[in-house]
Amino acid sequence: MHPATSPPGSGHMGIPWRRVAVAAVALLGLATAVTAIQAYGPDRSAASTRALTLATWNMCGVRQWGCAATGSWAEKRTQLGGLATRAGARVIFLQETCGAELESVRRRLGGSWHTAFRAYSERDAAGRTAPVRCDTPGAGTAGFAILSAYPLSAVTTVASQQPTVGVRRGILCATVAAHELRVCTAHLSPRHSDAAHPAWEFRDDQLKALAHAADTRRTVYGGDLNVNPPGSRNPFSWVWPSGPYTDQRECDQTSASSRAGRDTHVSGHKFDYLFTGLPRVRCSVRDTGKSDHYALLLRVRTG
């Protein structure tokens, strides 16, 4: 946490600035299935080579957070199911999802699928904290999650600095024993998240907590990190710790020195990431047409 702008202790978001263009973009008509693929090497199909496809997607499913124009929950369920079936993602990190809707998708996928879900909470000025409810009737609480085709064990919420007044997001890790893999999804606090202290910065401490929780080679971690990649054009590059891009490579990272990546948000920014120390096979960006975020998919060799 940066001492000049960060709080001494440990989130209401309001409507994030990155939602501003969503309604206009939706009315103009987003392309519903634009997919770009960057390969990093031959996709060997030998039976002895195990591989796994993972994805991260901010579903923009909390309608009151500027998501009313990004599609119905029925449409979002269809797109999520497509990531798990047509796109082949067997582990999916989700942000801005709704608990009851996610459970509906899991049931449709079948009994072999599992979820780990954590609700967002909102803390008021009096210190009272309550879970955030999705504004769609019957959708349940709003939160972030892991959807997996394999059993999840050692599910852990990672402690991290959070706003004193406002929406509190978080970091969630689990083990996919079938691939001897630890996975961690995160939804970090955007700028001005703390209603009482809008200048305080949280992403530096949150990124450190995420990288520390995933400090092994057999890990895939990421999610909606609410920050652009480090570089000369990003004045907030200082929030990035040393591990990402060095000890672990990002899905869309083309070389050791590269910090670039394709946009994952309709505003023209990259906010969504997947990092790993495992060999990367393929990275793709998929516009579902039903969120202001694109889905990011990473295929890794796990054996």
Structure, explained:
With 303 residues, the protein is of the alpha+beta class. It has one domain: Deoxyribonuclease I, Chain A. 14% of the residues lie in helices and 30% in strands. The protein has four helices and 16 strands. The strands form three sheets. It has a seven-stranded mixed β-sheet, with helices on one face. Strands 8-10-11-12-14-13 form a six-stranded mixed β-sheet. A three-stranded antiparallel β-sheet has the order 6-5-9, with no helix packed on it. Helix 4 (203-213) links the parallel strand 11 and strand 12 (219-224). Helix 2 packs across helix 3. It starts with 21 loop residues before the first helix and ends with a strand. 49% of the residues are buried.
Topology (SSEs and partners):
Layout: H1 22-28, E1 34-39, E2 51-58, H2 73-84, E3 91-98, H3 99-109, E4 114-119, E5 121-123, E6 129-131, E7 142-148, E8 153-158, E9 166-168, E10 170-176, E11 181-187, H4 203-213, E12 219-224, E13 249-250, E14 272-276, E15 280-287, E16 295-301
Parallel strand pairs: 2-3, 11-12
Antiparallel strand pairs: 1-15, 2-16, 3-7, 4-7, 5-6, 5-9, 8-10, 10-11, 12-14, 13-14, 15-16
Helix pairs in contact: 2-3
Concise description?
Its cofactor is Mn(2+); Mg(2+). By secondary structure, the chain is α+β, with helices and mostly antiparallel strands.
